[in-house]
Every structure is written in C-alpha cells, then in structure tokens.
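Next up, sample data:
>
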Amino acid sequence: MTKTMTYTQTTALITGASSGLGAEFATRFAARGANLVLVARRIDRLEDLARELRTAHGISVTTLSKDLSHPGAGAELRDELAGRGISIDTLINNAGFATSGPLVEEDPAVIASEIALNVATLVDITRAFLPEMLASGQGALINVASTAGFQPVPGMAVYGATKAFVLSFTEALAYETKAADLRVLALCPGATRTEFFDVLGSEDAAVGRLQSASAVITTALRALDRRKTPVSVVSGVGNRVLAAAAQRLPRPISLAMAGSAVK
C-alpha cells in the first residue's frame, strides 16, 4: 500500500455506531469528509449523531437500525444499501460485546450471541462488502479486535477467544489482499472508557489505565495515515508493552498473568 488514504467522496459503513468507539469513528471520519452509513440497534442515538454530523460537516449520513447477530445479516445489509444506490469504500466492524466470569456460570444463550456477533457477523459482513471495497480501492477494512486477543483470558474466556479470532482473521485477510489498494487493519484497544463496562456490569475486568475513545481512534487514524498501514495496531504504550510481552513469554506464564489480572 503506497498511496494515501482517501476520505472525501467515499462512504464508510460503521457497525455499533451509536456510542463509544463506533460513534468516535463516525465523528472523525465525518471530519475528514467521508459520507457515512451508521448501523446499530438504537436508532434514536444514531439519528442524533447523524444530525450533528450532517450539520457540522455537510456530509451524507444514512442510519439503519439492525440486529446484526443473525445469519445472513451481511448480505441483507449489502442488498439494502445497493437498493439505495450506496456502495461502500470503508468498512469498520465495531459491533460486539463481552461477558465475564467463569464459563460454568455464564448464560449459554448470551455467550452464543457473543460468539455470533463478535465472530460470525464480522466475517459475514466482511465477506458481503469485500468485493466492492476491493473494486473501489480507496478505503479500508478495520476490524476492532482487542489486547484480549493476544493471550487466553481466564474469566473472559469467550470474549478473549473471539478477539483472538478477529486478530487472526484480519491478519490473514491482509495477506490475501496485499496486492490490492485496500488498507486492512486490526485495531487492538485495551480497556477503554465506553459503555463496554456498563454492558459487562463492572470495571473489574479492566487491565491497566482506561483510555478514552478519542485516543483509541487517533491510534487507528495514524495507522491509516501511514504510507504502509500495519496489519494490526495496539492503542496505548502500556498496552503495547503488555501485548508484546504476552507474545514473547512462555504460554503458561502469559496465561497465569492474564488470569491474575482479570478479577
């Protein structure tokens, strides 16, 4: 990848866009001139954000209220947008959630939904929009992974495993598409001050200092602005140190460290 990232006269699709990292992505892409498609279940929040961004930046913003966790959601979304004459240059797979606690105590239905949204939906939507993004050659595929993906995480076993999948999937896809003009990036935040911990029910699972959503998205944009976008980027110096250590230490040691860090 040798040319600069394009924003103006392109369209970015952002899932999980009603708050947190998704809303921050929307705000920052809008400021750079990109048109937006914002997808989440909470349409009232999407509409509020859309009005704000249209007024501030004079861009087009399409909002869609959808539960993406069912099979075939990617094709449905692609077909609906095609019917409106909208093609996608950049896809930001941000939708997802976490559960915590020993697996034996978790609700099977909830963890099934967690796997479906964090893994199956991300792959489904990526596959649905990848052909038009490759044809466009002006945008990026950004999958939100996590520092939890660098090692097993006892107490958040399912979440950590889903994010390890996202990281592995994105790295492989970057290799598959390396000859194309498409930036492919796995964004790996650590603990971030968003509604993530409200859904989780506690900040006890946070490891290290919480970052702001703005700081995390700044990391992503700096990666996209590089002439050669890295396949993955970890947000925050402390998080980068921990992620590097997890990859270099013997597996039993990194596992024990993660187990003691997550309360």
Observations:
- The radius of gyration is 18 Å.
- The CA atoms of residues 11 and 35 lie 5 Å apart.
